[in-house]
Amino acid sequence: MNQVLQDLLILQERDSKIFHAKEDLEKIPLEAAKIKEALGNKIKTLEQAKANYMSAESAVKQVDLDRQVRKETITKLKMRQGETKRNEEYQMLEHEVIRYGKEIDELETKELELMEQVDQRKLERVAANQAVLDEKEFATQLSKQLVERKKNAELKITELQKERETLIAKIDDEARSLYERILSRREVDAVVLITPSGQCKGCNMKLPPATLHRVISDSALVQCTECSRILYNA
Ligand SMILES: [Zn+2]
Predict the structure, then answer these.
(1) End of a domain among 170, 201, 219?
(2) 204 CA to middle of ligand 1, Å?
């Protein structure tokens, strides 16, 4: 293989590494945003669990209060019963006492149910809180890894670019500008192999016999007639 092609292939190998390192670098802020979003969701779940717990607790308090009010009413009704001399009023008050008594029974049943709900909401709140703690720890570790990855990628790019400068200095201007022109359009793979059956590996087109012959003879840089990539034979 001629020297220019060899140099271009080495250059291309470095450029490909630079390309992938830059690609990795671009992914880092997106990954950091995902971590933040996941933690945000866990915190939202916890806030909801706290609110659910508080509302369950206040429902119990409300029922308890309702029960107390009825108890006090019964006490007052019984006092009036003790004071009245009229049988009709006594019976009416007795009827009320029984009615409030039934309501108290119902409220007690309801309070027990609500207290079970409080226990359930408490468990959910504890679990949501633990999930936030776990996610925070996970996010901290992942963030550290991302910082490290960013640093490494930047270092790698700097090193590769230095190597690139050295390589480029050895390649003549014409070959280099051709290579860079193709690379600017294709991002990667400006120099490609031909297949044993005479196709360009960049665009898969079958090469005309004259082009194929020039590639095999390896005397100068030959471009694919279809995609303009520089061709070489293994
Ligand atoms: Zn091609």
Answers:
(1) 170
(2) 6
